[in-house]
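Lecture notes, continued. The same structure-token format from the folding unit now serves as the input rather than the output. Read the line below as a description of shape only.
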């Protein structure tokens, strides 16, 4: 609704800005087929998925008990087209993971995904379906180990909980902690049973700036790459850790946030890049457009090109914004102590993990079964290479005078 802080419109704004910067020429834009709702039950319960399929604003009053049971109503309201919305962003993440598994891409971006709070049978924090978990399950079909990194200001609790007792998935979250949603993510929460030492949490205080963030992010991620050696990475890039966010209290610049993406990219591991939080509407597209430029390795100018939402970005119409002068409540002593504590945890992990994942679903003691995913190959008319052996090379027949093909701005 109008007063709700989560605005899906920000994804359309981001896409439009990416197109007008010309970054789409460096990528293949593809649309995966919508996944079958059954595929969502790889993680979520059948009852929960069936409820999301049938609930509408018109029949809400008939489902009072279920609304309460599944935590739908306040933070996670019912709206027209809700299940289709969930299906679309989840299909992007699972389809992206499938594309990485097939070696059709080395990096896949889905800015509509990254909804990391959803639980097995419960909506939470504006998240209904946990596309991060479902994408990781898809990646585990091919990769022995998958790393999940979360730079949203909120703790990635839904993803951590899903993989808390397996050593095939390591979850790493850098987040605001202490009287802040969702209230989880203590430094002492390191996993359970076979998953002990495979959940890494770096709790932070208000005012986190670029220099402080990088001083802990880079050493911790480097140590994880050294000890865990993942086959694929899922990077959740919630933009609510930016300075000036409507719900956030960090002080990161767009460049500082993007440097985390650049650092993870530097390891040259197949990577699925997802969106997440971000509640200042004019800043989220700035961040995700810049990070799109980072992953494709194409610098972009600060002066914003004219686009469909140009008036949102006034009065300066620039990609980068100054940070505020808020106080950084994270002392160097605290950051170094916590960093060393986590590095000690990482030193204890076994070199090559091998425990099967347990999702609690049917056949959960097995590697997840494949879902028959059909992925649309972009046709030559759309600037793709449907008949080319190399799906990641752009067609020479494309006319670069056209800013986008018809499907790129379709809803």
């Amino acid at each position: 609704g109008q007063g709700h802080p989560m605005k899906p419109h920000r994804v359309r704004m981001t896409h439009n800005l990416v197109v007008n910067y010309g970054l789409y020429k460096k990528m293949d834009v593809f649309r995966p087929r919508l996944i079958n709702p059954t595929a969502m039950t790889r993680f979520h319960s059948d009852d929960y998925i069936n409820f999301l399929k049938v609930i509408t604003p018109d029949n809400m009053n008939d489902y009072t008990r279920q609304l309460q049971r599944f935590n739908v109503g306040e933070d996670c309201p019912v709206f027209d087209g809700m299940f289709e919305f969930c299906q679309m962003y989840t299909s992007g993440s699972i389809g992206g993971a499938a594309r990485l598994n097939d070696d059709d891409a080395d990096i896949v971006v889905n800015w509509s995904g990254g909804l990391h709070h959803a639980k097995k049978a419960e909506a939470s924090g504006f998240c209904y379906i946990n596309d991060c978990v479902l994408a990781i399950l898809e990646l585990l079909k091919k990769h022995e180990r998958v790393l999940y990194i979360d730079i949203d200001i909120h703790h990635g609790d839904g993803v951590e909980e899903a993989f808390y007792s397996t050593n095939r998935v390591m979850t790493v979250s850098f987040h605001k902690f202490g009287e802040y949603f969702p209230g989880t993510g203590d430094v002492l929460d390191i996993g359970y049973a076979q998953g002990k030492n495979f959940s890494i949490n770096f709790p932070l205080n208000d005012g986190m700036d670029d220099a402080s963030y990088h001083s802990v992010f880079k050493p911790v991620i480097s140590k994880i790459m050294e000890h865990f050696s993942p086959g694929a990475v899922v990077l959740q890039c919630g933009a609510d850790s930016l300075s000036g966010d409507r719900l956030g209290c960090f002080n990161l610049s767009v460049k500082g946030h993007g440097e985390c993406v650049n650092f993870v990219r530097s390891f040259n591991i197949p990577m699925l890049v997802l969106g997440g939080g971000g509640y200042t509407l004019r800043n989220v597209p700035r961040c995700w457009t810049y990070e799109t430029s980072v992953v494709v390795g194409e610098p972009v100018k600060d002066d914003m090109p004219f686009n469909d939402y140009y008036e949102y970005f006034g009065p300066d119409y620039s990609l980068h914004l100054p940070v505020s002068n808020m106080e950084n409540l994270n002392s160097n002593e605290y950051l170094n102590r916590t960093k060393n504590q986590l590095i000690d945890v990482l030193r204890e992990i076994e070199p090559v993990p091998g425990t099967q994942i347990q999702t609690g679903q049917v056949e959960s003691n097995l590697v997840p079964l494949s879902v028959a995913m059909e992925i649309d190959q972009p046709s030559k008319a759309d600037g793709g290479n449907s008949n080319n052996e190399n799906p990641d090379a752009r067609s020479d027949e494309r006319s670069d005078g056209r800013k986008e093909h018809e499907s790129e701005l379709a809803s």
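Point for the exam: The radius of gyration is 20 Å.
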